[in-house]
Amino acid sequence: MSADNSPPAKRAKLDGSQLPEPPIGPETPNELPSETARRAEKPGFLKERPGQDASTTRSSTEKEVSQPAPSHGPPVPSGSEPPKDTGSSSASAGLPTQLPPRNAPKETLNPRMLANAPATHQSRTAILVKLHAAMASLNERLSKDEDSANKCFVLTADEVITMALDEEEKFAKQNASVYVNVIKLRIVKVTKMGIDEWVKEVTSHLNARYYKLNPIQKPQPLVQPIPVDTGLAPAQEVAVASLLVTSLVNLEEHGYVTKPATDAEIETAKQGLEQAKGWEQCCRCKQRFQVFPGRREDGALTSGGPCIHHPGRPVHPQRKKTDRVTGPSHPYFSCCSEALDKSSGCTKAESHVFRVSEAKRLASILQFKTTPAQPEKGPMPPVAFDCEMGYTTLGMELIRLTAVSWPEGHDLLDILVRPMGEVLDLNTRYSGITAEHYASAKPHGTPMPATSSSSSNEEGKVNLPLQLVQSPAEARDLLLNLLQPETLLIGHSIENDLNVCRIIHPTVIDTALLYPHPKGLPVRWGLKSLALKYLGREIQTGSNGHDSREDSITTGDLLRVKVGSRWNNLEELGYSFHEDKLIDPEGKEATTPPASWTTVPDPGQKRKSGK
Known about the structure:
- Belongs to the REXO1/REXO3 family.
- Keywords: Exonuclease, Hydrolase, Nuclease.
- One of its GO terms (molecular function) is nucleic acid binding.
- This is Exonuclease.
- The protein is an alpha/beta fold.
- It has 2 domains: about 15-210, no CATH class; about 235-260 and about 370-585, Nucleotidyltransferase, domain 5.
- It contains 17 helices and 18 strands.
- Strands 8, 9, 10, 11, 12, 13, 14 and 16 form an 8-stranded mixed β-sheet that branches. A two-stranded antiparallel ribbon has the order 1-2.
- Helix 8 packs across helix 10 and helix 16 crosses helix 17.
- The longest helix has 26 residues, at about 550-575.
């Protein structure tokens, strides 16, 4: 790292006449000690070098050199005589063949420590070694390149290590949730990189780390968005999507509620609660604690003190062929990379929390409601929706509800919900909702300024204010106003959203089942991983939690991707459209999918089809 702490110079294009004068010092460089000379020199500017004929520039193979020479000619190595004018100096003016000195730190190929590492130390080390090998190979190729003007971009061994460490650390911090996938793509790109592109990478790295300048080349997005284009009109997309309705038969054991609980079942649940006397098991740390709806005499809502837990999920690394040499990778927590059996928790919360999954107990708090028919409204367009939840003295409750039209993605509903129980934890890490949102919320129906069509900013933080309804039942009724029983209702792991709203809807499309996991239920792909794979879209990346509007739109776009691929298959089978109605090969309106389609595998069975 350069010892000069002065602010970076303004970025500007410099030609030969604008190069800074060398620092004032003794008449010969040898009269000035090397360390003093380094401190006296100021950071230079690395320009992005266009392609040049090697014969028009002078080379320098030195790793640390003095400041570029004055404006009357190209840069000259320290102690060298200026070259004679060959008539081509103007072509190479301003292209430094020597760079200001830099002191790379002495580091080893050992990943830098992070508060929330995205993988185990062993995994990060293996990835770092591969990244360093790819960079070292390019650096070696550059050192042997015939273009002598590139010699100044050859890095020392220490500089290559530092560059690899910097890049691995950047990916670990900025792309923690998809760290392994993204950095593997980066390693492949570096491996296939050409000399010219490598020079640009080195230039950006040197400017950012040693010369305190912004990278010359604007970094490209790590993930390129994949445009969604089905080639169909919206009404035609709806017709194809109607063939993808999720069948909920035999899925009750996985949390899908298909019929309301009976009065007898509700009474049984209430009796069980009375006998339990408020004792629950914390769903984060598994400790037993007591909950006091309405508060205990001393004002406490729960017993058991603070909750020390891991907010991240356990990660079980896949087995690899190299395990025989390096040893197997041990399971760890995604939040802190600690081994499963060696850490009791990395996060401290004020209270223990719990969630309820049993249908009859959910119904004892608020009964389920089946979507009613609204004949006066006629057919209603599909709706994609998502909910955010927080922990209360009644379990996990609805605190935000968002619905958008499909396939257009227009806003239909976005409201904050006051839960029925006392709040234990708003689950801000995932819900994105804070106490500030409730404090600034406006009553539902209040005219809101039309500042933006989005309820969240680019960083994923929910904009203020939202409209507030006074109960989950009121929020549910607002959503049901948008639905008929035959209306397509789209969600990801939709049983969670339906259950927290206490809705039973007969016509749903669950993208978690539309893109089944190869291991079969109950294992499912997360919305984040599906968005990255099929949409080239990074979601849920901010530190402010999830955004239900973003998740709703993403879920709808995943359905559009599937509609596009299914339509290609239908065309091959002889299906067509007539006035936006899907017609089967026999000339009849298609109401059921072809027999060859398998949308959802049997529960617990591995998926056999690759479609």
